[in-house]
Design brief:
With 272 residues, the protein is an alpha/beta fold. It is 49% helix and 12% strand. It has a five-stranded parallel β-sheet with strand order 2-3-4-1-5, sandwiched between helices.
Length: 272
């Protein structure tokens, strides 16, 4: 494999890269800071980004950045999540059998959160991934969940994470009441040219190999083709490393990258 050819200790562009070794762009760092604030103050936050721009990485960083002795995290990712299954999913993670009716399950959750806050002295943060797929009924339920003790206290931090169309959906008039409760809105942008280069170099540094494998012109083409989307950068770089090792080339120039773009980046590899 190309790891041996390039004398790497780890696979550089893998999903399994440890959180501590992942590149953190300025936008990612800013969003993490804002989510940390939301968790501390128990606020309602929304995070959106185009597909492949680092939402999963953000969640991993967020969850691992806060002390476990102070926070309890709940995580749900279900495109068919109804209000009842929303409450059931969270109660299941707390080890509690949910009651059948939505209202009863909501009261169960609120009671358990009170115990966690009062007895365990922990704050609760609930993350809903793929939130752009949620139906109207579920989105509107957040308003009732957060309407607690006549708005005098928020029972938990709620973070909706989804693709760009999530915010387009929330801007609709039907969601005005929900939108008015959003405390923090974050958008993860595409990486720019310099960030793309730093992203690639950080992954190569993690792998333990040379960080100058890609020429400047190759990096230019990778940025143009990927439009700064990390998932696409990973695919181009991985295929380039594989092809270069097969050809016995230790330097990846723009000609090799363009060959990969023309012959390898087909079908699912070109989609965001």
């Amino acid at each position: 494999m190309y790891e041996t050819f390039f004398r790497m200790d780890h696979t550089p562009f893998s999903r399994n890269t440890p959180v501590a070794d992942l590149y953190e762009s300025p936008a990612m760092a800013d969003t993490l800071g804002r989510l940390t604030y939301a968790a501390d103050r128990q606020l309602f936050a929304v995070v959106t980004a185009d597909a492949g721009c680092g939402k999963s990485t953000l969640i991993r960083r967020f969850v691992t950045s806060l002390p476990k002795e102070e926070y309890l995290f709940l995580y749900l990712s279900d495109s068919k999540l109804t209000p009842r299954w929303f409450y059931k999913g969270m109660l299941d993670q707390l080890g509690i059998e949910s009651k059948f009716y939505r209202g009863d399950a909501k009261r169960q959750l609120q009671k358990e959160v009170e115990i966690i806050r009062g007895v365990q002295k922990k704050k609760v943060a609930c993350i809903l991934d793929e939130a752009h797929l949620l139906e109207k009924e579920t989105i509107e339920e957040f308003r009732f969940l957060l309407n607690y003790r006549f708005d005098s206290i928020s029972p938990m931090a709620l973070v909706l994470v989804g693709q760009t169309e999530l915010w387009d959906k929330l801007r609709m008039q039907r969601y005005a009441a929900v939108r008015q409760r959003i405390d923090i809105n974050c958008v993860l942008p595409h990486l720019d040219r310099s960030e793309t280069e730093r992203y690639i170099q950080s992954h190569l540094a993690y792998a333990g190999g040379r960080q100058d494998i890609f020429t400047d012109k190759a990096l230019d083409d990778i940025y143009k083709e990927s439009t700064g989307i990390p998932r696409r950068i990973n695919r181009i770089c991985e295929k380039s490393l594989m092809y270069a090792s097969q050809q016995g080339k230790r330097l990846i120039d723009e000609h090799l990258v363009r060959y990969i773009m023309e012959h390898e980046m087909l079908g699912g590899d070109t989609r965001q």
